[in-house]
Amino acid sequence: MFINVILPLALDKTFTYAVNEEEYKIILPGMRVAVPFGKSKVYTALVVEKHQIPPQLYEPKDIQQIIDDTPVVTLIQLEYWKWIASYYLCSIGEVYKSALPSALILESETILTAEKKTFEHQEVTDEEYLVLEALQHQSSITIAEVSKILNGKKVIPVVQSLLQKGLLLMNEEVQEQYKPKMVKYIKLHDEFLQANQLQELLQVLGKAEKQKELVMHYFQLFAKERKPVLSKLLLESSGMSSAVLKNLVEKGIFVEYFLNQDRVIFSNEEAYTIHLSQAQDVALKNIQKSFKSQDVTLFHGVTASGKTEVYIKLIETYLSNDLQVLFLLPEIALTTQLVQRLTAYFGNQVAVFHSKYNSHERVEVWQHVLQQSDKAKVVIGVRSALFLPFSKLGLIVVDEEHEATYKQQDPAPRYHARDAAVVLAKMHKAKVLLGSATPSIESYFNAKASKYGLVELNERFNNVVLPEIYLIDLKDKYFRKRMDGHFSDELIERMQETLANGEQIMLFQNRRGYSPYIECITCGHVPQCPNCDVSLTYYKFRDALKCHYCGYHIAKPTHCHQCHSLDLSTKGFGTEQIELELKKMFPTKRIARMDQDTTRGKFAFEKLIDAVKNQEIDILIGTQMLAKGLDFENVTLVGILNADNLLNQPYYRAYERAFQMMVQVAGRSGRKEKKGSVVIQTYNPLHNTIQQVVNHNYVAMFNEQLYERSNFKYPPYYRLIQIKLRNKDYEKLKDGSTWLYNVLVQHLAVPILGPEEPVVNRIRNEYIRTILIKIPNNTNLINTKKLITKVLMSFDAVPQYRAIKLTLNVDY
User: Quick count: other Cβ atoms within 10 Å of Cβ 108?
Assistant: First the structure.
């Protein structure tokens, strides 16, 4: 009897293990088993099939244990993983590793046990004696515990020495990481539950006044709540110490028991109703009509048109048919506001799944979805939520579908959540709604080609007018000396007016830190990262220079490292510099910053977003996080401090992304009754993309970019596959990338660019080269990918190139 399993490693094939007849009956595809792999490692493997055909190439090992009673992964999921692996050219093991919450993939820990209980003191060193002494008091210890005993001193040599002396045994043991959250409850012992027993109970307590008081308090609490009494709540409300409760338990009056509790519970305090406007109602009906003929519909609604309300009404129809709904968002920042809205409407039927939740909380959501629990009828999540074990999926909503963050970069699988959602829905026979005010060119192209349905909502909710956009020519302002720091006189004037009216301001600058680099005025030297090919970003708050790629940092230099001049100057500006300038201009106003540096904590986003919502912040400065669909009714002025940053990017999507970013940021202004305005500062006010933003003209941007893409062979007319090669040896990388390019050109009859050095051509001491393969839409994609895979396998077979790391990025 045999089973085929997937291991959580970058291996593309399944492995066969032997099982006995009893195990063979119990095991089902989708269950986890602990298996030995290699010399001494144990991994959590996932069963994909069972059979009775022995492997030809190796002797199968026995499994160690069956971990689950029932499958934790569904058969549809396994099919979906196979599709992800084949389409995005990665291994099934990598998909398994990223799909399951880490707490479900067990850790292999080395366990040490004593070989014999007695030993001669003179045959061991002091460190070895400490380890053996610890084993006198407990049956086994892990390497991590040995490290603590020896205060981190050379652990491995000590362990190896003891193994050689035959005093220790070592074996690999799998440890279950996930532990349910158990909450302690208190109840009265059964014998005191009768009404006539109360007098007897008080007699038992005698003169123990505090214990009597706690028992009486228990009765009051039980009568009031009419549900199990929490131990913690009883102590808090009575003001008693835990010692009093402990005495009552020891006397057999109270009984302690534990119940499993969800780690994340949403309160449903402010239930609210939704009344759709006439335009929203028409849009909803059009979406439902479109779903009758199309599986995927693009919902193109201007900013603040009330797309979320339409989503909620649509979700309601699916929930009434007892189906599950997945609501995808591009950024964790957005989940905060959306969770508040959806839980207020749907109560505790909403579950949230993203990386800011700890592994135990994610496992609980996984279990709820698997069991089709009422607590996970609607799942709000970022791209990883696609891997949840749905079995009754009816609808996937992909909000802000144009966002770049839907594309996974590292590690593999490098999938695009929007495209992967369409395939997942097809497997479940579900529908997909893509929503955006600025759809991606590919989605709008598909809608125009009738591959997707298209529904448009062109008016803001309650007929609120779109904000007025003003362009500021920075060249002219600097020439006329009408700039204060990085603010033009017009922007300052509008900010003063807005603040005087008690309204809020958002400022957008897509660079964090104080300034992108420091330069020596005397010789022009710029401090560089020793590991990466980039300059170090200056942070005034920490008074340090930091690399955004590898995290390397140094204190701010007092003099130039090249010529020792003391004349150093900061160049460019980031969010930190803007914050300091604003504090000088408006010393009495409350100013906050939203970027990667200020939102690292689990609830940092929530705190910041609540503070803006409650009008505790007057001016919010931020990076692209501001563009992610946030909704604040009192924000009436938005400032984009330097639009050219967005336009001057070496990427074929630069103008499309710049347009989307500016329209989205502008859309945060004047979302309710108060009219909003937007100020865009730029050196190039006549640039086509900026003019399209000013005129809210998405179609003009779409047509212009489509013409460019067609000319230069880019999506949606071509599929792109980027091959990235990395190695510490520059010459070896250069030779290897040239060899690979030449072989690809020989085998593929499609345009291939490269090998070229990217803008940042060295990260963490590894040099980088890229090759870009452009596959026309009329070419067979599957056959082309097979050829690419074959060429890469032959590349791996060349001994001198084996050390070169390869990564593939499909739909780059």
Answer: 17
CA distance 356 to 350: 17
Contact between 15 and 5 under an 8 Å Cβ cutoff? The reply is yes
The answer to whether 65 and 18 are in contact (CB under 8 A) is no
Euclidean distance between CA atoms 71 and 86, whole angstroms: 24
Helix, strand, coil content of the chain in percent (nearest 5)? 40, 25, 35
Asked if residue 521 lies in contact with residue 565, where contact means CB atoms within 8 angstroms, the answer is yes
Structure tokens at 529: 């990262």
> Which of left, alpha, beta for 389 (phi over 0: left; psi -120 to 50: alpha)?
beta
pLDDT at res. 180: 55
Helix (H, G, I), strand (E, B) or coil at 568: strand
Q: Which of 176, 188, 261 is nearest to 223 (CA)?
A: 188
Which residues does the chain have with pLDDT short of 70?
A: 40, 106-110, 116-122, 143-144, 152-157, 160, 164, 170-182, 193-199, 225-227, 259-272, 333-335, 356, 358-359, 600-603, 627-629
**In sequence order, what are the beta bridge partners of 389?**
none
Amino acid letter at 671? R
d(CA 17, CA 34): 11
Whole-angstrom distance, CA of residue 20 vs CA of residue 6: 19
What is the H or E stretch that residue 415 is in? none
Round to whole Å and give the CA distance between 786 and 793. 11
Query: In the prediction, which pLDDT does 120 show?
Result: 67
283: left (phi over 0), alpha (psi -120 to 50) or beta: alpha
Measure the CA–CA gap between 693 and 701, rounded to whole angstroms.
9
Closest CA to 108 of 9, 3, 4, 2: 9
Question: Per the omega criterion (within 30 degrees of 0), is the bond before 413 cis?
Answer: yes
How many other C-beta atoms lie within 10 A of the C-beta of residue 180? Answer: 15
Distance between CA atoms of 234 and 216, rounded to whole angstroms? 11
For the residues of 165-221, what is the DSSP string, one character each?
TT-EEEEEEEE-----EEEEEEEE-GGG-SGGGHHHHHHHHTT-HHHHHHHHHHHHH
- CATH for 468-514+573-704? 3.40.50.300
Identify the sign of the CA torsion 158, 159, 164, 165: positive
Domain boundaries, the chain: 2-106, 108-175, 190-252, 278-460, 468-514+573-704, 718-810
Q: What is the DSSP string of 433-476?
A: EEEESS--HHHHHHHHTTSSEEEEE-S-GGGPPPPEEEEEEHHH
pLDDT for 261: 58
How many angstroms from the chain centroid is the CA of residue 627? 17
Nearest to 162 by CA among 141, 186, 137: 141
Chain centroid, CA 729 distance in Å: 33
pLDDT in tens, 489-507: 999 999 999 999 999 999 9
HSE of 443, CA atoms in CB hemisphere, 13 A = 28
Domain 2-106 - what CATH class? alpha beta
Tokens (6 digits) for 446? 């598909």
Specify the CATH number for 718-810; select among 3.40.50.300, 3.40.50.1370, 3.40.50.2020, 3.30.70.600: 3.30.70.600
Q: What's residue 178's pLDDT?
A: 46
Tell me if 278-460 shares its fold with 718-810.
no
**Cα gap 765→53, rounded to integer Å:** 47
The torsion angle over the Cα atoms of residues 625, 631, 632 and 636, rounded to 10 degrees, is 80
CATH for 278-460, options being 3.30.70.100, 3.40.50.300, 3.30.360.10, 1.20.120.450 = 3.40.50.300
**Which DSSP symbol is given to 70?**
S
Nearest Cα to 99, choosing from 353, 474, 447? Answer: 353
